[in-house]
Write a structure and sequence with these properties.
By secondary structure, the chain is an alpha/beta fold. Helix content is 39%, strand content 15%. Helix 6 links the parallel strand 4 and strand 5. Helix 4 crosses helix 5. About 6% of the residues have low confidence.
Length: 342
């Protein structure tokens, strides 16, 4: 009998050069840890918003998890025709990702995949379009969380990819990237979604979900900032029980430019905590967007962040927040605040 031991100590992410084969990237397309056990039974629809129960019922039917109709007047009623794709349209914190994961878990499919929009586009970037098509060809279900509409190139690639997969029998389920903590701005994105994927619009049925953010996150909350002594104590404590990273913010940001986003998940492998020294505002948008993709992986892995310097929710300057990638930055800010408080 062998006893596995947890790695402990401090590592520097700027020194890691992870490799990830295509098959490994595809195998990693499963719901993140916080949604490993997500089911329709554990989704609590708010009675004040009937659209939540309606969305749950429709998605249960889509995934084949709906209970068979009982005998009676409606037993012979014709079932509504379901499109090959469903799109969950709603505000932040109404349970869209939970429902998407429930679809994934409930559908009795041989081959099914769950990932964020960024993960799929990163896969195309790493493997090439045609290789990605071949990897997914024959899949029963593709779940896409936070479908992003702010990059026309990526949107076009994904629309084309999904079109080829649907033509071969794949079913699709997607959610929107409604911005967090934006006081309702862009709350419903269905019209934008259907317009941008016009070539695929007829394949999707839109499911609108109303409600309030069940997490009740503070709109004006700030990420936690440590002084040097507090930071070093936090890193030392984490390193005594697991693996902690410790990097200068500028060094990590520079390193991300040399690691393909599809490999960011391997960059943080085995970590228990992420440490960032001397956080500073971004001046380069490409670097900022790479950091957003990195934080998505950190958040999905539920890793706490400890940092010094400016508050991490202030790393994106106003001119960036006013630009075309506003939604991505707002989502990242919410996740950064949550990760520093974890």
């Amino acid at each position: 009998m062998t006893v596995s031991s947890t790695r402990t100590g401090v590592v520097h992410l700027a020194e890691r050069t992870p490799q990830l084969a295509g098959a490994e990237m595809v195998a990693a397309l499963v719901p993140p840890p916080q949604f490993e056990q997500a089911t329709f039974d554990t989704y609590r629809a708010d009675p004040a918003y009937p659209s939540q129960q309606g969305a749950k019922d429709l998605l249960m039917a889509f995934s084949g998890a709906a209970a068979p109709a009982k005998g009676g007047l409606f037993r012979r009623a014709k079932k509504p025709e379901l499109k090959p794709g469903v799109y969950l349209d709603g505000g932040f914190g109404v349970g869209k990702t939970h429902l998407l994961a429930a679809v994934y878990h409930a559908m009795p499919a041989r081959r099914k995949y769950f990932g964020s929009f960024i993960e799929y586009t990163a896969l195309v970037g790493a493997l090439g379009y045609q290789n990605t098509v071949e990897l997914f060809r024959g899949a029963d279900l593709i779940c896409i969380d936070e479908f992003e509409l702010d990059d026309p190139g990526d949107t076009m690639v994904m629309t084309r990819l999904l079109g080829e997969l649907v033509a071969s029998g794949t079913r699709l389920a997607a959610t929107s990237n409604t911005p967090p903590n934006a006081l309702g701005e862009g709350r419903f994105a269905a019209q934008d979604f259907l317009r941008e994927i016009h070539a695929m619009a007829s394949s999707f049925q839109t499911i609108r979900i109303d409600g309030t953010d069940y997490r009740h996150r503070a709109v004006d909350g700030h990420a936690d900032v440590l002084d040097t002594a507090q930071y070093e104590a936090a890193i030392a404590d984490a390193a005594a029980h697991g693996l902690a990273s410790d990097d200068a913010f500028d060094a990590l940001v520079a390193h991300l430019a040399h690691v393909h986003p599809s490999r960011y998940i391997r960059l943080i492998e085995d970590l228990a905590l992420v440490g960032l020294r001397d956080v500073a505002p971004f001046s380069d948008q490409s670097a900022a967007l790479r950091f957003v993709a990195f934080i998505d992986r950190v958040y999905d892995a539920q890793l706490p962040i400890r940092a010094t310097g400016i508050s991490l929710d202030l790393v994106f300057p106003e001119e960036m927040l006013a630009g075309g990638y506003r939604k991505k930055y707002l989502r990242a800010i919410s996740r950064l605040v949550a990760s520093t408080l974890a």
